[in-house]
Amino acid sequence: MLERIFKLRANDTTVRTEILAGFTTFITLAYIIFVNPAILADAGIPKEAAIAATIYATVVSTLLMGLWANFPIAVAPGMGLNAFFTYTVVLGMGLSWQTALGAVFISGIVFLILTVTKIRQYIIEGVPSVLRSSIGVGIGLFIAFIGLKNAGIVVADEATFVKMGDITNPGVYVSLIGLVIAAILMTRKIKGSILISILITTILAMITGVQKLPASIGDIVSFNVPSLAPTFLQLDLAGAIHYGIFSIIFSFTIVELFDNIGTLIGLTKKAGMMDQDGKINNIDRALTTDSIGTMTSALFGTSTVTSYIESAAGIAEGGRTGLTAVTVAVLFLISLLFSPLIGLIPSVATAPALIIVGTLMLGEIANVKFEDFTEIFPAFLTIIMMPLTYSIATGLAFGFISYTLIKLFTGKAKEVSIMMYIISIAFLINFVLR
After folding, report:
1. Model-level pTM?
2. Residue 81 in this model has a pLDDT that exceeds 70
């Protein structure tokens, strides 16, 4: 049965290899169970429901990726997309989390339409590589800034806007120790480095009194799975439409487009699934899975899902088919039993993980042509405006508009695609109508 579904022999793999690869990906990715609910809780979503929504959305989307697309890739609520949901849409624009979920659902419909009509590919091809790279770097800095803030390493200041926090505060130095541990584990290429660092930092937080100790085994494992009731089907579609969700949907779409397609291309290439012409078998199914997963995540009560680069760990272990993804989904489902443990993880333990994730996203800066000012200027604005305005959407707008204008007025208009003009005009209209 497994051979028939996943075509194991054709992909030169075995059941044992695929299961081991799935376990490796799970260990590498499991930190999202702790981090995503912490970010969503800042938006006002009940944390227990956020935990359940995160797990269920991951299970459904990853199963679909494995069983339908036959890709060894895990799909879960995206880092950066969850930050955009909480800090830009809910806290920044003042929308309720229910309205934001409505916007996520509509964006899933948009993704599906763009995928089926092939417009999604045209958009990707029409945006220059410098902006594709800059988006990832900017989101990385934004996520790292949130981590520094949650750790208390960076705090607000009336005179200078930000300053260094009190290092003598137990929570701050526990986070700093956790950050060093995470960095050492990452350097040594230890599998599950981020997850291990979160658990070690949590133990340190308990030892120092920053976090309470579990009083019983029930605080660690329970057969009463967390309830989805507070968030399930709570999305407010009418509210999203009434608010005028163009800018939100547009930003969700742009961020998700390049985050997901870039990850899929990188992972499938690493898995040897890309042919000599650069074509990827079943890529349409993978992109459709992403669209359906986004709508599903909104129904459960979490932010947009995306393919995870951490799947590379499982691919490196030999994962080549959807059986790897199915294994990941099963392990995520089992993790529901450990939801009380997730509730014990303090923000000082997840903050270092955010900083490390931000660090990993910095690598894309190498693709920016520093010798060409018409490239580096919009790249700089895209990257710097995301953390400084606390808004991914604003960073995108500054990057796209500046790229189009500087090319247009320096004799390089031919380098600007029709799609770039359309996107830049849309961002300008959004600024005017705010």
Report:
1. 0.71
2. yes
